[in-house]
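Troubleshooting log. The previous structure file for this entry was overwritten by mistake, so regenerating from the original sequence record. Sequence copied from the archived sheet and checked twice against the printout by T.R.
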Amino acid sequence: MQIRKCLHTSILVSDLQQAKTFYGDILNLPQSTLRNLNFPGLWYQLGDYQIHIIEDQKFINQNCINPEKWGRNPHLALAVDDLAMVEAKLHNNGYAIQKSFSGRQALFTKDRDGNIIELVQT
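Regenerated output below.
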């Protein structure tokens, strides 16, 4: 057996509209309508990689075991062209930000359910 590539990541959220605002409007991820989901959720397409947002209204995120360094928790990393612009947009919309402790051009933020997203300038 040989694993060839990663196909998608699923992220649980408690409020689909709130997630759509964060992932679609704030992060500007391209939403796909190529496939109907048979559950409350959204599908974002980044090249041949997908992010599935799945709503569970009872979801309570308990993944932040290291609140001092968000990068040492489960997270999704995304490449961006202009980190300063992303940081300003997150800040202006009330999202918490933690810069990478490594000194890289990267920061971490959380959606409203506490899912951690790393944004790295490439």
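The chain has two domains: 8-55, 70-121. Archived copy saved in two places this time.
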